[in-house]
Amino acid sequence: MNLIDYIDRGVRIRPNAPCMVRSDGSEIYTHASFSRLTEQIAAALHTDGLAPGERVAIYSPNDADAFACVIGVIRAGGIWTAVNAASRPIEIAAFLNLVGCNRLIYHADLSEHIDELLQHVPTITSVISIGSGQRDDLALDTWIASADEYRPPHGRNPEDIAVLAPTGGTTGTPKAVPASHRQLVLMCLAHNTHLAEPEPPRYVCATPMTHAAGMAAFPVLAEGGQVIIHRGVNAPEIFGSIERNRATRIFLPPPRSTHCSHTRTYYTRTFRLCVISCLRLPPSLQSASLKLSTSLAL
Description:
Elements: H1 3-7, H2 9-13, E1 18-22, E2 27-30, H3 31-47, E3 55-59, H4 64-75, E4 79-81, H5 89-99, E5 103-107, H6 114-120, E6 126-130, E7 138-139, H7 140-145, E8 161-166, E9 176-180, H8 181-195, E10 202-205, H9 212-215, H10 218-222, E11 226-229, H11 235-245, E12 249-252, H12 254-261, E13 273-276, H13 283-289, E14 296-297
Parallel strand pairs: 1-11, 3-4, 3-5, 4-8, 5-6, 6-7, 10-11, 10-12, 12-13, 13-14
Antiparallel strand pairs: 1-2, 8-9
Helix pairs in contact: 3-4, 5-6
């Protein structure tokens, strides 16, 4: 099984359920409408001549259309090149050069940084903009409107690489870590089997979803759950969202988890999983993080 087959399970079991929602709980896309958008993006990539295994970066703050581009790239047979929009452009450029990135889809809110990125990454030959900004690049809506009909690629191999993600840089210059379709499906199955939630998960996504937090959304989509989109980590807003949306999952790197766990006590009766992305977690932070959830994954 490849990752897209597994993610599409959510469309089959809950097509009309909310998929991407705002922090106030309002719906952006259902599973069916979100899936259609990812297919349109995949079709546009095919129309543009995307070759299997081409590297495509999504550079954006947390945004439903940007995450649809992530899924669309993988659906089309490309390799999603994960970048952290909070990083400096020169750091992002170094990673894109390392992996030989071929295409860039960026959000108009970050358009002021695109000239610098393109100057330092000569391998990028295609640039698409989500929304309109300071540049005249082809807009996502126009791009997908002119695409051919979507046709699933043939001969997908579970061992094909789906994602290239950077390491954190704690051991020197960030390196590229490949993740295959099989590995990502197993990750999703491990999450969902371990939790055995009585209803579809609701995931607060506040850290960059074009980076590691996006991978934590994959198992949520497969269960027909909700991805609750925040732009940044603000503890009162996060805990308010958890209660308002009856959230069950969150993903936080150590500095953000420290910030949240050191705030006053919040009532989180629905919470089932807190994922902390680090190699070793100090016991004090483990204890604090367990205030958020009885299930802690490192």
